[in-house]
Amino acid sequence: MKAIALQQYGSADDLALVEVSDPKVAPGEVLIRVRAAGVNPVDWKVAAGALDPIMEADFPLIPGWDVAGVVEAVGLDTTEYEVGDEVYGYARKDWAKNGTYAELVSASVRMVAPKPASLSWEEAAGVPLAGLTAHQALKRVGVGAGDTVLVHAAAGGVGAFCVQIAVAKGARVIGTASERNHDFLRSLGAEPVVYGEGLVDRVRDLAPGGVDAVLDFVGGGVAELSLPLVGAPDRVASIADAGILAHGGHYVWVRPDSAGLVDLARLADDGKLSVHVERAFPLSEAADAWRLSQTGRTRGKIVLTV
């Protein structure tokens, strides 16, 4: 099969389209014919060796954890899916090796779910990692109906999902973003505020009594900065700043979760979760997709089409 691979830790410049062996399919797994693969910052961070202290890597390394595609084959004792089923998933294994930037990828059934019928392949591929991150972060801080939630980097890949999921739960959402993204946030149901100096005062103007929960998807100390706005530190969660643990908050590292993917698909098919695809690149242009991702200025998701 064709795949994008690295021969050693490196950067976008080291990505190459190569021929590799088809992946093996273990019991309890499905083999997916990839139609689209999501691009996430963690992909190029893995490639640069940033996760080497906590994750084994084997080369040639095919990046990518997000996938949408069609079941090509099933492993022994895999009864949940049949050949031809349309699925999507967060195919993060315990080591970096056979990722989703390929024509085929194998994945455990615990990593996948039926593809949302209302979403295109590209849209579906943009959901799993970012959508599950938002889903699990909101659950960690107990967001529910009537809560007022502050979401940092609300227009980004994870933030946009967080806004929509929180609104679907009946929460009021205040989201930080640059002014060019304020109309986008309003379209998702959030009240936008500009980030930067004076942020706490601007949030208090909108919510004089403070907020019930804070979700940080950008880092840079904003989680700690937001602590005076929230009544209890255990209602603050960050995916970018482990330092919040020292203040009693949560550091969230997303896990594969089939049930969570089912929830996200239901929201999408009920019209409560949309996916903004900033740009779709062909697989052969994965390097350009990474360069765009590395600008940190994209709205929504970047995907590869296979």
UniProtKB/TrEMBL annotation:
<dbReference type="GO" id="GO:0016491">
    <property type="term" value="F:oxidoreductase activity"/>
</dbReference>
<dbReference type="InterPro" id="IPR020843">
    <property type="entry name" value="ER"/>
</dbReference>
<dbReference type="InterPro" id="IPR013154">
    <property type="entry name" value="ADH-like_N"/>
</dbReference>
<protein>
    <submittedName>
        <fullName>NADP-dependent oxidoreductase</fullName>
        <ecNumber>1.-.-.-</ecNumber>
    </submittedName>
</protein>
<keyword id="KW-0560">Oxidoreductase</keyword>
<feature type="domain" description="Enoyl reductase (ER)">
    <location>
        <begin position="10"/>
        <end position="304"/>
    </location>
</feature>
<dbReference type="InterPro" id="IPR052733">
    <property type="entry name" value="Chloroplast_QOR"/>
</dbReference>
<dbReference type="Pfam" id="PF08240">
    <property type="entry name" value="ADH_N"/>
</dbReference>
<dbReference type="InterPro" id="IPR036291">
    <property type="entry name" value="NAD(P)-bd_dom_sf"/>
</dbReference>
<dbReference type="InterPro" id="IPR011032">
    <property type="entry name" value="GroES-like_sf"/>
</dbReference>
<dbReference type="Pfam" id="PF13602">
    <property type="entry name" value="ADH_zinc_N_2"/>
</dbReference>
